[in-house]
Amino acid sequence: MSEPILEVKDVGCSKAPGQPIFEHVNFAVNDKDIIVLQGKSGSGKTTLLKCLAHLNLYEGQILYRGKPPQSYGIPIFRTRVLYVPQRPSLLPGTPRDFLNTISGFSSRSTKSGWFSKSHEHDSEHHGNGVSTTAIDLNGPIEVSKEWGIEEELWDRNWSELSGGEGQRIALATGVGLGNAEILLLDEPTSALDAGSSEMVEKYILNEVKNKGGALKAVVWITHSADQGKRVGDRFLRVTAGGIHEERGLEEA
Ligand SMILES: Nc1ncnc2c1ncn2[C@@H]1O[C@H](COP(=O)(O)OP(=O)(O)OP(=O)(O)O)[C@@H](O)[C@H]1O
């Protein structure tokens, strides 16, 4: 088997000192994996996804293609291992603002040779001296149109979109920019009707399994057993003591 894309080594996260949510989490994300993340409500599924995207403090080690996120620069890393929030309505500004922000990071990674160079000090300060150029923003907009989203919605504030519109736009951003290698999906279709949900699922599955594009794997939180069965080929359960691979989807 080829090298894992992401390795999670003895990762733990706490609410406060001495109050762990989970500890000793170990697993790897491989090419073409669609991993369904299970666990009781409050077990730490969202927290774990945020750790994977370096959006939460954690103990232990996360390696992306063999190197820690810092070596790529955290903003760039986050465009490659992209967390798609459950409630994008909480984001500031409009979807187009969000797209412009992350496409700026994405284009820097392209120009600077993402896989070949180390940016030890490229952090939140965007200070690695690599210039930013606009990249094609049409990808996400075109994907969202396929999912029934008119372009004008990209210029509305997130807070003024319906839950389902916001979710489809956030997902279309992740899929359509063409830079994410791993999407971390946090109940991505919880606000969609069954038909829209299955359309989005099929699109993402096809991208991972058949397209041979940038998107290589997905870690997917869902509370729907039916959806888990439709999309998943690996099933991991989060508990306070760690993470366990299961043969199939079990009741939480
Ligand atoms: N910012 C925070 N500060 C303190 N505690 C937090 C914070 N975020 C989450 N928690 C706590 O961490 C635990 C795990 O929360 P998390 O949202 O990761 O669980 P979950 O498995 O995704 O839950 P659900 O299935 O209900 O969405 C919960 O006890 C939650 O209250």
How would you characterize this protein structure?
The chain is α/β, with parallel strands linked by helices and 252 residues long. The chain has a single domain (6-246), classed as P-loop containing nucleotide triphosphate hydrolases (Rossmann fold, 3-Layer(aba) Sandwich). The chain is built from 7 helices and 9 strands; from the N terminus they run βββαβαβαααβαβαββ. The chain has helices at residues 45-52, 74-80, 95-111, 138-146, 163-176, 194-211, 225-231; strands spanning 6-16, 19-29, 34-38, 59-64, 81-84, 182-186, 217-221, 234-239, 242-246. It has a 6-stranded mixed beta sheet with strand order 5-6-7-3-8-9, sandwiched between helices. It has a 3-stranded antiparallel beta sheet with strand order 2-1-4, with helices on one face. Strand 1 and strand 2 form a beta hairpin. Helix 2 (74-80) crosses helix 3 and helix 4 packs across helix 5. It binds adenosine-5'-triphosphate.
Let me know the largest β-sheet: 6 strands, mixed
Q: Per CATH, what is the topology?
A: Rossmann fold
Mean residue pLDDT: 85
User: What amount of the residues lies in strands?
Assistant: 15-25%
Bound molecules: adenosine-5'-triphosphate
Structural category is alpha/beta
Rough outline: globular
Organism: Irpex rosettiformis
Protein name: P-loop containing nucleoside triphosphate hydrolase protein
Keywords: Hydrolase
Distinctive features:
252 residues; Rossmann fold; 6-stranded mixed β-sheet; 3-stranded antiparallel β-sheet; 7 helices; 32% helix; globular; hydrolase; P-loop containing nucleoside triphosphate hydrolase protein
